[in-house]
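dude i think i finally got it to work??
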Amino acid sequence: MGDEFEDAVNQLWGVTSEFTGLGPLEACLDEADFEHCSGLAEDALIGAKMKALEKAFNALKLLKRGCKVVSRSAVRIAGVARTAALSADVPCFEHDVAGLPRDASKIPDSTDCGVCAQRIRDSLGAGEIITIKPAGQHGLGGYRGQDSFWFEHVVVVHNGRVYDGFTGRGGETIAEYKAKWDWPDAINFGF
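look at this
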């Protein structure tokens, strides 16, 4: 039954490669010509376009709010690399995530800081999501007068400010934020 088994395996591989997209990759690797690799080039181009569209969409969200962030590569005017203008609805560098900020009494029961940070960054239109971890074997300790019971915490850092579910819509300066922790010297903030 070896022939039947080989046919079944080949048929299974054909179906699997078709569903996973490995067929065109295998053909491209075997033939290494434009005819067989053009589909992969199209996929790569589409992926690059999607990333560019995401960047443009984030920039448009900032523009809608009346915020303009000048990139580091832009010409510096009077030494100022970043400017912000207030809009009528949400001030620049403030998020508008519903239900935030949470009361500090909710810190011991909170577990969704990664999702919260993602929502904040999406609302801001920019920012870096950073995971705070203890520098040693212990947890992060107390935060805002509450025992956090956290072994890591996820925040957004944008334009010199830190945002999480407890900071308020405008975040806090890095120094202000670090001062809210009981053991700031035993925490690897990453910023």
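The first helix runs from residue 2 to 20.
im so relieved honestly
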